[in-house]
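Batch job 17 of 40 flagged for manual review because the log was empty.
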Amino acid sequence: MLQSLLIANRGEIACRIIRTARRLGIRTVAVYSDADAEALHVRSADGAVHIGPSPVRESYLLGDRIIAAALSTGAQAIHPGYGFLSENAEFAQAVLDAGLIWVGPNPSSITAMGLKDAAKKLMQAAGVPTTPGYLGEDQSPDRLKAEADAIVYPVLIKAVAGGGGKGMRKVDDMADFADALLSCQREAASSFGNDQVLLEKWVTNPRHIEVQVFGDTHGNVVHLFERDCSLQRRHQKVIEEAPAPGMDEVTREAICAAAVRAAKAVDYVGAGTIEFIADGSEGLRADRIWFMEMNTRLQVEHPVTEEITGVDLVEWQLRVASGEPLPKRQEELSIDGWAMEARLYAEDPAKGFLPSIGRLDTFDLDNEREPDDERHLRIETGVEEGAEISPYYDPMIAKVIAHGPTRDAARTMLAQGLNNSMVWPLKTNAGFLVMALAHPDFAAARLDTGLIGREGDKLMPPLRPSDKALAYAAEDLTPGNGLAGFRLNTPRSTSAAFLLDGIPITVSFDPREGTVLTPEPHVRIAEGGQVWQLTPFRVDGAGGASASDGAIISPMPGRIIAVAVAAGDAVIKGQKLVTLEAMKMEHSLVAPFDGTIAELNVSEGGQVSEGMLLVKIDKAEA
């Protein structure tokens, strides 16, 4: 067994690896950027090395600095986690060349599966079914459009080096292809340094099914069954579960066998995932499931597989890297119950899911259960109260995993845990996740990757607490008995003003003698996974300052990558004005109504700060 390990990653996955390594008696070394100097993973490891400034290209993506850190601290091996350099074959080879152990697949396997077009050709040769599409080397816009037209729309454009939902665009009409191609190539070049794409036929009622595979250096390859990751928003996974709903044993055997063939075709070692797209229009059938790609690393959603199999996949990674055979044979693996995972992000659904940046003053995720309760809630996180969520990294702050005897038990437990979460002052997607878990189609396992896109408005959490929650909060904000006489659905004789997250509101109540509102303190309301702050507010007739109508404000720090208007232009509601690149994603800012561009304060390539006025629109006269 290894004696020492450097984790070339950050956040929750670094903490996750450290936890297993410590249990196995392995000394751990963390690496960190300026922004992560006080991070949880740094303080959890046995040692830590600073590797550069906050931007990932100046720290976590610098393989030479990471290798130097391993050598200087006496680490035997490097575990890449997921993301960053985890699927970089050159880095993996450099680790080996430095005399270190790489906790991952052989560089040749990463190379073979690293580009989606080459991987699909390899899978076709191995007898693994693949989605119809275009994999050619001719990347001219005319050729790509001609191929897309021949495939018949809708068509999916995918970056050949992509991942994490980036560099992907669905195109419904040939008139939209050129713009979608440019946007996809631009995002792919920015995220992966490679703007080449492939084309695939968009599958009707698509479901995203993936199989966890594992190989060792002794020629053994097993699968640990499937996961369903169909609930997605903009091609990024939101809620994952295992096993896949509606998967019969015949289909499971077929898809898992195909995954094992795929892994064997590249002499795979370590943890990997074979991703498939399924046409779910007639349920899951073996003849309607096609290979998409292979992730040659540990997946974000690996805990659901661990929960249903009882296997610690990180332990398996470390044992295989130490030269040991797989701890279990295929016949020794089985499915126990159901597991479901939700990705909790510091982001604001009310603002188009833009990341919420700043300090976590309160971070309390519900992980309590009765001692005799068989249900299980697991929290994986890399942050804690007082941590700073920076603009430099992905804003995922936790993974919440439920395990129960049935799908409904796991779903209910997960929703309950998210419902009781308390995160402040940053916004999170917890309320959105609660709504998604409660949606009738999700509850009934009527899944496909377009569910969130179709039902988006119905999944948006309410913008304010319920009257009942406000009543309870109002009581807490008055001295003595305060608003103890407040009753819902009864005549009220008095009202009081409060600030709800800084916005004035009025709460009516039946006062008791001696009730006096106090200008402070405040109370926080947690309901449905959302958190609001209520503060007493004296109404003195003075109006508060607010942004004028038509002021387009930057929601977060970033870079302007496209400007679609000029000063004086007439615009219509919904028209794209500027495109902001932030958190490795593109965000389009659009006109809120018909009008004229009165001010344009940005240009392409310019950096902007949060709260900066980008564009001012004068509303058109009715």
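Reviewer: the log was empty due to a logging misconfiguration, but the result itself is present. DSSP finds 16 helices and 35 strands in the chain. Unflagging and moving on to job 18.
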